Amino acid sequence: MKTSNKAAKGKQSLDQVSELTTNRLSLYLRCLNVLEGAGEQTVSSRSLAEKFHLNAAQIRKDLAYFGEFGVRGVGYYVGDLKRHLRQILGLDRKLRVAIIGAGNLGLALADYPGFRQEGFEIAVLFDTLREKVGQTSRGGVPIHDVADLTTLTRCDGIQIAVIAVPEAAAQHVLNLVVAAGIRAILNFSPGTLDVPPGVKLKSVDLTVSLESLSFFLAQGEG
Amino acid sequence: MKTSNKAAKGKQSLDQVSELTTNRLSLYLRCLNVLEGAGEQTVSSRSLAEKFHLNAAQIRKDLAYFGEFGVRGVGYYVGDLKRHLRQILGLDRKLRVAIIGAGNLGLALADYPGFRQEGFEIAVLFDTLREKVGQTSRGGVPIHDVADLTTLTRCDGIQIAVIAVPEAAAQHVLNLVVAAGIRAILNFSPGTLDVPPGVKLKSVDLTVSLESLSFFLAQGEG
Fold first, then answer.
1. Quick check: do B2-88 and B95-207 share a fold?
2. ipTM more than 0.90?
3. Contact call for A91 and B214, based on CB within 8 A
4. Are A212 and B26 in contact (CB < 8 Å)?
5. Domain segments of chain B: what residues?
6. Which residue among B19, B159, B210 places its CB closest to the CB of A186?
7. Whether A127 contacts A133, CB under 8 Å
8. CA distance to partner chain A, nearest, from residue B32 (Å)
9. Tell me: the pLDDT tens digits for B84-139?
10. What is the pTM of this model?
């Protein structure tokens, strides 16, 4: 099992493995939170799969890649596995996030409850509009002038930038963010962006989600 | 090749196939738009893969699943393939979308440029707040009272609902949307929701995107 697992992975780039696997690890972490909330101490890959409509073999494979967390006859200790997953995902320390663009999207993201729950701290919003600078989001995240991006990134220890500006400004903002020393960027702007090596860009294309619903509707009609 | 492809697929649920494959088809469609914009008439799976950092074998496999679109020695005709993909994804007709929740997120989604580009029409926003009802988004999408959801869904031919309300209200809104006859739902609220059979729910968990960046940063430090 282990050999074929490794062989299959060898064909994919490391980047693809990270992307697909970390998305699943994030999902497992959410499921473990639910189990912990319900007072469960241990869980098998099979019951985890059944409860949350996951694939048990995939769970075992994903977790085995990062070490042996399962205990024969027991399954996984919920608390232990949660701690391991948070460590693998780098969530065992608070990550400070800046959002560039304090329009509707930026403001919505600043107060998105899921981020805080998982240990991300939205420290600051940036905008160029004079009437926005000095205000805060409804949840209290301060809006600063984008001219102060480099200074605040260093002072506040910002490690992740979220780009929530119109498409026409996105590449310029990305360049500013990279120049400020940020190496991990989440982009909500449509269109492709150039990133220098050593910087990780993750783009969220909301249209893709709608298209999978469109496909579902089209199949139903066919 | 074809047999092993089918065999591999047999192991996954139809739902998983749709999800993963349609996400890739959406991506191919975006790449073809770029090529068409650049005046390209034909493209091989290899050059498509090289230009956009995709996997050539995966492209051939994905497209072969829906029919034989390639021409030996030519590759794919860009315009033809685009038309086929749009048809498979159900994008050959306009789909009308309603957004429930006219907060920052709902308003941002209503004016998200990607949706319109791909043939989705954000027809209406719904909210419960008296001061919002009767207003429009910056892009001109009208905000109606959620009490009129069923009526407007039928009159306007709404086929997709987007849930952009706080977590506490999400299940209630989902029930309203389903009762109004909508079978395809895109959910931005954190937490799990129950859906009746025959209804497709796609949840966008924005935290997952941030966690893959956190993983990247953690690997760099390790």
1. no
2. no
3. yes
4. yes
5. 2-88, 95-207
6. B210
7. yes
8. 13
9. 998 888 888 889 999 999 999 999 999 988 787 777 899 999 999 999 999 999 99
10. 0.73
